[in-house]
Design a protein that fits this description.
6 helices; aa-tRNA-synth_II/BPL/LPL; BirA Bifunctional Protein, domain 2; Octanoyltrans_LipM/LipL; 3-stranded mixed sheet; BPL/LPL catalytic domain-containing protein
């Protein structure tokens, strides 16, 4: 496994998305042959899916959001918009899956290392949906009914092969102040013409569960588990 930008805690989101695209292209051209994984944080920004970029009033919402100091970027994987800042940590991984695999199994493989780290910290988390949480899905990492982490994927076919290129994203909420950003997400969707709305009460942070672990120590545990 190739570790990239490990513990890069002050990244530009556009640069991260560009790195992702370069890696995906390398895999498609069979230049890369090993897993790539990186942990990162970005300066305050909003990242949306391609589906969000098709909303009726997306451009107006984008301009307004950027006027509030949040650059808006479009990612390749699915899910709803996510605020990026130092209140969350991102895990990104790209790899080639040669053997047939279901989406369910790929998500389970994606989440297992994080669930194991949390368990070692005494946190009994599980996978599930959380109504009212941002970027909700069946494979959230959940603690006591609240969302701790969100996940998304994108699959591409390898030319002239049955293998798949899988891009994985996970966003883990580290700090309780992240809840305050829920209003900005709701403002964006309202202006963009969407009925989506989120509740800060649906989110829980690692800080609220176990306040004595630092971001750096948590990331080191994650990297050890993935390695």
């Amino acid at each position: 496994m190739t570790l990239l930008n490990t513990l890069n805690l002050d990244s530009d989101l556009a640069q991260q998305l560009e790195l992702e695209q370069q890696l995906m292209l390398g895999y498609k051209q069979c230049i890369n042959t090993t897993n790539s994984l990186w942990l990162w944080q970005a300066t305050p920004s909003l990242v949306v899916s391609k589906i969000d970029s098709n909303l009726k009033n997306f451009e107006e919402a984008k301009l307004y959001t950027e006027s509030q100091g949040l650059p808006v970027n479009i990612r390749q994987s699915g899910g709803s918009a996510v605020i990026q800042n130092d209140q969350v940590i991102n895990i990104s991984r790209i790899y080639i899956q040669d053997d047939p695999i279901t989406i369910q199994q790929s998500y389970l493989n994606m989440c297992r290392p994080v669930l194991d780290v949390l368990k070692d910290l005494g946190i009994e988390a599980y996978l599930g949906s959380v109504e009212g949480a941002f970027c909700d899905g069946a494979y959230n990492i959940v603690y006591q009914g609240k969302k701790l982490a969100g996940t998304s994927q994108r699959w591409l076919s390898v030319p002239k092969s049955k293998s798949k290129i899988i891009l994985e994203h996970m966003v883990i909420v580290l700090k309780k102040d992240y809840k305050l950003w829920t209003k900005k997400l709701n403002d964006f969707y309202r202006m963009a013409g969407s009925t989506q709305s989120f509740k800060d009460s649906a989110i829980i942070s690692l800080e609220e569960i176990k306040g004595d672990i630092t971001t750096e120590d948590f990331c080191k545990k994650l990297l050890t588990e993935y390695a």
